[in-house]
Amino acid sequence: MEIIQYTFEKLSRARSINDVNNILTDLQVEKKFQMDDKMYPPINFRITKNEIEELLKEESLTEEYFVKDVSNQNALTKLLYSMAWKNGDLKKIRHIIEGIVSENNYEKESALVFYQFGKYLTKESGEPIIDQHVLRAFGIYKALNNQDEQEIKRLTVLSMVTKKEKKLISDYKDWLKNDLRDELRKHDDYAYYVDKVLFAVGKKVKNENA
């Protein structure tokens, strides 16, 4: 697992977004393992709890955070709604909203990836996007430090983020906020770029150990 150790050594020394972006180049991580910037470009906006409350007042959302009829909305809203409908994703929006409006100690037991994505959309410092690949990379890094071979094996084949990984998510967020250089953390969206690196490394590790 040298790739994991190298990645976290480089991240711990990174002072800029360029330093972070160069890690995958240095590691020669294949493009097939990296996030496609055309599919997942940086999100240059934030969504606040107040904005969600406004949607509730306007009755654009139900009290259970489901989207109401969008017939009178603009064409872009209707297109995005239609895409979510076609993919069967309308119910997932509720979990994202819960992440936006909840406090940090909110006890979420399911849909943790979407919930955390909601927290990321608030653009509060250290709130990352997470998925199985990011958590695999971080979890293996921790397990290597603890010499926990059983945990390394478990995480190598991790395919779904469940409530079992809540502690790992919390530890990852703490690491982002406390273990990276201040110069890097001053960037508004540093967690996004760190996530991109860990996504690629975590995906590569899973593929090579399948």
SSE order, as H and E?
HHHHHHHHHHH
Largest β-sheet summary? none
Q: How many domains would you count in the coordinates?
A: 2
Sum up the overall morphology in one term.
Answer: globular
SS element count, helices: 11
Proportion of residues in helical segments = 55-70%
Structural class: mainly alpha
Radius of gyration: 18 Å
- Overall strand count: 0
Summarize the model shown.
The protein is mainly α.
Summarize the topology.
Layout: H1 2-13, H2 17-27, H3 49-57, H4 75-86, H5 90-101, H6 112-121, H7 132-145, H8 149-156, H9 166-178, H10 182-185, H11 190-208
Helix pairs in contact: 1-2, 1-11, 2-11, 5-6, 7-8, 7-11
Give an overview of the whole structure.
The protein has helices spanning 2-13, 17-27, 49-57, 75-86, 90-101, 112-121, 132-145, 149-156, 166-178, 182-185, 190-208. Helix content is 59%, strand content 0%. It has 210 residues and is mainly alpha-helical. It has 11 helices and no strands. The mean pLDDT is 93. The chain has 2 domains: 2-42 and 125-208, no CATH class; 49-103, no CATH class. It starts with a helix and ends with a helix.
